[in-house]
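Table S2 (continued). Query chain:
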Amino acid sequence: MEKSVGLCFSMAPLFLVLGFLLPPALAGHDYGQALTKSILFFEAQRSGYLPGSQRVQWRGNSGLNDGKLNGVDLVGGYYDAGDNVKFGLPMAFTVTMLSWSILEYGKQMGASGELGHAIDAVKWGTDYLIKAHPEPNVLYGEVGDGNTDHNCWQRPEDMTTSRAAYRIDPSHPGSDLAGETAAAMAAASIVFRRYNPSYSAELLKHAYQLFDFADKYRGKYDSSITVAQKYYRSVSGYADELLWGAAWLYKATNNGYYLNYLGKNGDALGGTGWGMTEFGWDVKYAGVQTLVAKFLMAGKGGSYTQVFGKYQEKAEFFMCSCLGKGNRNAQKTPGGLIFRQRWNNMQFVTSASFLMTVYSDYLTSAGKSLKCASGNVSPTELLSFAKSQVDYILGDNPRATSYMVGYGNNYPKQVHHRASSIVSYKVDPSFISCRGGYATWFGRKASDPNLLTGAIVGGPDAYDNFADQRDNYEQTEPATYNNAPLLGILARLHAGHSGYNQLLPVELPSLKPIAANLNPAAKPVAKPSPVSSSTKSITVTQKVTATWVQKGKIYYRYSTTITNKSSKNLKNLKVYISKLYGPLWGLTKSGDSYIFPSWVNSLGAGKSIEFVYIHSASPAEVSVSSYNLV
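Corresponding output:
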């Protein structure tokens, strides 16, 4: 969980260090394995009802009454770090960065077999964010209270701390929170455009409303949700999130209004003025500047070419600063790690490395190089530096320590994380009290009973020192926003450059079947599927009608019913189905969609049509993409 830190807009001086020899790596890193593990971490952070496909088996359901006191359903989402609070600002940033990772390197994730899991991680976040936005100008930004939570050391499944929910509205604004959530919804809408068009459209609707809310009712969210100040204080204000939200909405819609917003407000909101050496959940300027530089290199500048050139200058200031080739450079440890602050420094390392990775590929696509004070830098050199940061995280450092839990042979064993440090609820369901958890588990000088696979912890200090102790929260606590940017870099390093122009519109690949780790006791049950999309006029329900085992695999026969709930005839129905890994009967394939079979022209009022499919996984995602009522 964040401790509030001061934001310094002046750049740190160059940190001069003596050279030394790093421990030699016996072999190159397995970036594919690291990618798999880094995605798995998000399943350990889930709140709410866990699905049958849950792979982190030591976790259980939690936070099942979230929002009840406020009369709203806020079940789900992610715990931010090693605690049991749901903070909206870092959660939304996590979703934005997960989405950006997929949009840039989805093809590489697909080649690694991890694209489906990455998309699931996004959807777990967006499903919650949709719930947190029940009205156009209302957004819930926190569930739980950091103060009471920190007085307890309990599993999420046991927690007895406050689950009060806190919101922003026109009388209590929060432009930074609403702007970041708009960015998350817009970025995720691009991810789902191919796989679930109706869900994508829903996300975009929320993004539009949230951006308007953020822009019209301006103010810092932590002035409205004051309980967040101690943990996620918005030091940078909300100007960067307004630009960030506009940039993602332009990327999602190609609507000139948002491009104009970036052009007209670049000076007033700081996009053209602030040269930064950090990028993260609070300070978005470097991210905005990188996106706008991409728009410019793609020929989208138009009448704002000069203004967008200023954004790009600041984007390159950030890149050069990280490399140590600018006028004012980011501090580094003797081992070469970017160092911003002693508490959870790794968040800045992964986010900066992501920006350098994508900017390297943008430059390659544009046939350009990076212009630094010390001279031009090739895209290859920029990517190489980002790789060096990832390699440091994975173990190429003076301590030969991997800062990803479960990767390599020497990684943190006493993570500052409630759920992983206490025996699993499934192993011992005995209630663990607030203070009992501290007495029995927090001070225990032994490895965690549950492996928090893939978690990126806070990391070493300014001199590469690290103490693997549970009470050392500055160094051993993980966070979702540490991992989110890393997914994209790991996919890129594992699968290489796919050869396509990254300045062109995104084209994500088809999803490959995921080997579902199904527990027979948790197999799909005969009830409406949570992944079916329904409207007031049309309902979609799914149920399991048969199961069997063949060659060690469990197969399911699903029956899906589409019902016309309107008083009119339903015609020209188009259904989009994703995560389907077997044969289907009862509909006709038409391009990427399914339509009525040849013997059905329309569906009368109150009538239904059934189709069936068979595969060895959880229910497919079924959504109605278009239809006519006549």
